[in-house]
Amino acid sequence: MVYTETIDLQGHLFTAVTVHLPKTTLLTISNECGYIMCGALDVGLLNEKLADRKIIAGRAVGVRTIDDLLKAPLESVTYEAKACGIEEGMTGEEALLKMI
Predict the structure, then answer these.
(1) For residue 45, what are the CA distances in angstroms to 18, 41, 53?
(2) Which of 35, 48, 77, 88 is the most exposed place for a label (fewest CB within 10 A)?
(3) What's phi and psi for 70, nearest 5 deg?
(4) pLDDT in the model for residue 55
(5) What is the DSSP string of 30-61?
(6) Contacts of 83 (CB under 8 A, 6+ apart)
(7) How far does CA 3 lie from the centroid of its chain?
(8) C-alpha angle with apex 61: 57 to 67, nearest 5 degrees?
């Protein structure tokens, strides 16, 4: 099953997507600038093989719900995210608000 919802963070809208797969769940929250995602996100791939795309993204591990993703500290972020002031350890919500 795939679920989408709109999340309002301080008046800014983001799209949250939950994808239930066998034995795992993929979670992402995005806007037109970037996104945060569960542990399935390969930040190394984005930084190395897809660097030319300048993707703003962050990864949180151990999350099971969209609410967890908002509250969890980011474990890793892309180089482009760092250029926007997004750092490891920030909560998902803090990182998303830097993407506006």
Answers:
(1) 22, 9, 11
(2) 48
(3) -65, -35
(4) 96
(5) E-SSEEEE-TT--HHHHHHTTGGG--EEEE--
(6) none
(7) 16
(8) 80
The first and second tokens of residue 13, run together, are: 């809208």
pLDDT tens digits for the chain (100 residues)? 999 999 999 999 999 999 999 999 999 999 999 999 999 999 999 999 999 999 999 999 999 999 999 999 999 999 999 999 999 999 999 999 999 9
Residue 5: both structure tokens together: 């919802």
pLDDT of residue 3: 98
* Distance, first Cα to last Cα, the chain: 29
Please choose, from the candidates 47, 52, 39, 40, the residue with its C-alpha nearest in 3D space to the C-alpha of residue 78: 47
Q: d(Cα 22, Cα 50) in Å, to the nearest integer?
A: 28
